[in-house]
Each structure stands twice: as structure tokens, then as C-alpha cells.
Amino acid sequence: MGSIAMPKPDDAVIARRQEIVKALRAIVPGEGVIDAEEEMRVYETDALTAYRQLPLVVVLPDTVEQVAAVLRYCHENEVKVVPRGAGTSLSGGALPAADGVLLSMMKFNRVLEIDYPNRAVVVQPGVTNLGITRAVEGDGFYYAPDPSSQIACSIGGNIAENSGGVHSLKYGLTTNNVLGLEMVLMTGEVIRIGGKHLDSEGYDFLALMTGSEGLLGVVTEVTVRILQKPETARAALIGFPSSEECGQCVADIIGAGIIPGGMEMMDKPAIHAAEDFVHAGYPRDVEALLIVELDGPEAEVDFLLSRIEEIARANKASTIRVSHSEEERMTYWAGRKAAFPAVGRISPDYLCMDGTIPRKALPRVLAGMRELGQKHGLRVANVFHAGDGNLHPLILYDANNPGELAAAEAFGADILLLCVEVGGVLTGEHGVGIEKRDLMGAMFTEDDLKQQQRVKCAFDEKQLLNPGKVFPVLHRCAELGRMHVSKGKLPFPDIPRF
């Protein structure tokens, strides 16, 4: 197990386990409640498999009314709840609580409405990311955010983590493509935010919920924006003799005012792993590979590709290959999409990190990661969304060797601290979860974190939703609401108080 601690379980709640299970069975009858240890094993972890914990009980509701009733019961009886989608989170966001209910939303798996005039699709949260595109591609539409796990990850999980993907540079993250949500609060209240209209009045609660990591409510319905497929899409494979030259090419492309549909970078270990796995035709004699895709009118795509070739050659590109068919374009992307499982073939274990940096800092951070690899005695394979600076270093280790997991975690922490040092952030799309929780102090002050927790308290006063995640130190809501008096004086004394 990893070194990050979870809150100590409440023995009083565990002692009431049979009572809690019985109450939940009355709400979700049949096979909707799982309490046998062996059957709960499949829920003990998410894709951050270094951390495992059996939940108190697993509940699989299939109606909004059941979700509301489960949350209402848990709120009234002070039982913690961990919402879960497909379990593809890489930050431990769906790690169960030993004294809490794991609420799986995967029975909510239907496409409810396809509305082409409004370019919108209404789905339940258990529908996979790729499932949305599959539902509309026959009519020439698609859903833009495309994480590498899109064949498996659920749209509800995408909401929780604000997931991106290889085309997020041009088309945005989940938050830029979600129009509306139906959510159930911890009290059991059902609320609706946004809709098919393009904007909402008042506070932007939709943006607040997208990326809230299951701390504020449970999503039961999602309305997303769909786009029409572009007239033309072509991709270029560009190889470089060094990662620094590849990184500079990325900065120069964006600096020239070109916004590709996608721009991904891989270093030599990732290139070789992906090529051995997929046979995409990647060059093996380069240190770094850039995949750049342009989409839009054919004349525009051809012109921009010629400009990118000029920029690449100015940055000493050693190989340039442009796709001439849809099959060839998809083959280029197949290797990138399969990079994570491909790396799994060359190492018993790996940690997939997720930091985001200013593009101009890319060469410095890549050089810094090499130095950190020597410091910790571990290899790293780099695969990332180069266009928006979202890094995904894959730290290779063997959990069977004593001390290697701890070394990998320390290596990962150093990479994330380097991202913050150069003006970046701890996460781009994987979320904080437990993985980055104890690093939050490197990016936020204590006052910053307290302010964020006040938002949590507004939605979940008893702090029962997804406990132990995101915040390194959790304060009681009453404590956060206190007025601080310094030297006998109230802050901002001129403000009227009621």
C-alpha cells in the first residue's frame, strides 16, 4: 500500500453495519446492495491501484428516487458516501471509505435524448464517454472531449474530474462541453443546473460542479454539447532528436497563432512501448515524437500543415510524415491512445502523474524530470497533451521491490512541485483525489483552502461526501464560519452586519 493515509474509520458506524445494510436493502431491493466481502473486492480501488480499501457496503441504485433516498438516509444517520463511476480515476478519487457506503452509478447507463437542432444529448452518468459519440456519429456528430480511457470512463466521472483528452486544446475540457446537470445533494434534494441553452443566469454552479470530485453532490443526468464532424482531419507525425526541440516546436506552433485539433507529445520510452504494442509506424530513431492534427476546411488544413512543417524543420525535426487517409490518421492516434496500457507491458507497475505547466516551461520541465529520475533511481516515460501543457509522466517501478513504490511517490511529488514552481498547477484533468491531496499546501495558502472548504460546507455541512479527498486538513464547518477578531476589532468594520 502507498503512504497516503485516509481518515480513521468511525468504529461506531462500523458497529451499525448490519442495521445500515438492512435499511439500504429496503431502499434498493433485489441485487442493488452488495455486502459480501468477495463481491465488494471489485470496488476496493480505482485506477490508482496502489491504494485499496473495502467499503462498508456497496449500493447500485437505478432510479433518481433511490439515489435521493440513499443519500437522505446516510445524511440523517451520518454515514459517509463515496460516489463512483467506472472506476478509471487515476488519483484515488473513488477510493472507498471503510466506514462509508460506496454508491455506484453504473446502472444509470441510458442515452435519454438526442436533440440535433440544439446540438445536445441528454444522458445518464453511467454512459461511457465514447458511447455518446457512438450514439450520434451515424448522423455526422461527435462529443469532443476524448480521454484515453474513453472506451470505459463514464460521463459522470468525466464531470467529477473535468476530464480532457487529446482534442482538448481546440475544443476544451468537459467543463466547456457540458450544458446542464441534474444532481442529488447529500440531503436527498434533487437540483437542476443549466440546460440546453448556452448560458445561465446567476452564479456559475455548472462550472463549480464540473471538477468537484464527488464532494458536492451526485450527478444523475448530464446534458452535453455535440459537434458536427469537420470536413477534413489530417494528422502529422513529427520526430525530433531531443525532447527540448520538440517542446520548443510546440511553443512555436502556438506562438504562430495555429490552434491544432490535437497536439500530443511522447518521449522515446513511450514511443517504443506504443509501437511495440500497436505497430502504428512510429519512428524508433527519435528522442521525441509530436502528433499534430488539423481539422476544418480542406484548404485551411493543407495550408496550416505546410506552416507546421516549416516550423518543425526550423526546430530540427528529423522526420515528418502526414496522413493521407482516415485509416492512417486513426493509426497515428491508436498508438497515443494505447500508450498507458503499452507502458504496462514494459514495467510491472507505473504511476501516471498529471501536472499542467505554461507551454514555455516545457523544455525546462522535461530536463528537470530527467534529473529527478536520476535522483530517485527510476525511469519515466512521458506522454502528454503538449498543446495545453498537461503532462502525464508515467513513473515505472516494481511494487514487489521494497521501497520502489515509496520512491515512485516521492518522484511524482517532486514532478508536481516542479510544475507549481514554474507557474503551473497540480492537476489538469485527473483531479486531486488522495494522490495530490497532501501537496495542496504547495499551491494554496491556508486561507485559500479554508475558502474552498466553505464551499464544501455549503453543499455538505456534515462533510459526508467523498471524505478524505482533496483537502489535506479538514476543518469543521462551524469552525470555518467563525468571525476572527484581531486586537478586539472586527475585520472590515464599515460593512453592515445583520
From TrEMBL:
Domain FAD-binding PCMH-type residues, every copy: 51-229
Pfam families on file: FAD-oxidase_C, FAD_binding_4
SUPFAM superfamilies reported for this sequence: FAD-binding/transporter-associated domain-like, FAD-linked oxidases, C-terminal domain
Identification of the protein by name: FAD-binding protein
Top-level taxonomic group: Bacteria
InterPro entries referenced in this protein's UniProt entry, alphabetically: FAD-bd_oxidored_4_C (IPR004113), FAD-bd_PCMH (IPR016166), FAD-bd_PCMH-like_sf (IPR036318), FAD-bd_PCMH_sub2 (IPR016169), FAD-linked_Oxase-like_C (IPR016164), FAD-linked_OxidoTrans_Type4 (IPR051914), Oxid_FAD_bind_N (IPR006094), Vanillyl_alc_oxidase_C-sub2 (IPR016171)
Cofactors (names): FAD
Gene3D superfamilies, alphabetized: 3.30.465.10, 3.30.70.2740, Vanillyl-alcohol Oxidase, Chain A, domain 4
This protein's UniProt keywords: FAD, Flavoprotein, Oxidoreductase
Any one GO molecular function term: oxidoreductase activity
Alphabetical list of PANTHER family matching this protein: GLYCOLATE OXIDASE SUBUNIT GLCD (PTHR42934)
